[in-house]
Design brief:
The protein is 11% helix and 58% strand. The two termini are 17 Å apart. It is mainly β and 178 residues long. The chain contains two helices and twelve strands. It has an eight-stranded antiparallel β-barrel.
């Protein structure tokens, strides 16, 4: 599909897997915090890593990845062994800024940018009918503040790598100029 860079591609059905990197898994475990999935996302395992697998439920982007946003169903739950919980739902990725925002439920309720990402074209495969992506996600200041507000600690520092992401989604030309 050879579209001019100004054309918009619409996301169809797809799935994203947010897999804890080993250093993040160790840091969470050391703090007594477990990763869970916020429904309807599911907790899965990929290559030995704990993952949250969330459906891609909409979005669009430009073929050069300079415009667009992607929405996901479900989200993350971080549960301390003493019962405290931090839940992040309503995940939305903003392609040009490289930020994932979420509805944060914990010590206080708010919308916050919780993860950041950079698109590396070498790790993206844009075909005629689907997009395959491999993206690293780091914790933002907002994500770190959410951990601090609920758990009193930030096991993964702001800017620290948290998830190794893999995704695949159907795409179609939206017929809309950006």
């Amino acid at each position: 599909m050879a579209l001019p860079l100004g054309d918009l591609l619409r996301m169809g059905a797809g799935m994203a897997h947010y897999c804890l990197v080993p250093s993040a898994a160790d840091a969470l475990e050391g703090a007594g915090i477990a990763l869970r999935a916020a429904a309807p996302a599911e907790l899965t395992t990929r290559e030995g890593m704990s993952c949250v697998s969330a459906k891609i439920v909409g979005g669009s982007f430009s073929p050069d990845f300079t415009k667009g946003e992607i929405s996901f169903d479900g989200g993350f739950e971080f549960a301390h062994e003493d019962g405290r919980r931090l839940v992040m739902t309503g995940l939305k990725g903003d392609v040009p800024t490289g930020l994932i925002s979420a509805d944060v439920h914990g010590a206080e309720e708010r919308r916050s940018e919780v993860l950041s990402f950079a698109i590396d074209p070498a790790r993206m495969q844009l075909g005629p009918a689907e997009l395959k992506a491999h993206i690293a996600f780091t914790l933002t200041d907002g994500g770190a503040a959410a951990f601090r507000s609920v758990f009193g600690v930030v096991p993964i520092p702001s800017g620290g790598e948290m998830f190794d992401g893999h995704g695949i989604a159907a795409i179609t030309a939206a017929g809309v100029r950006l």
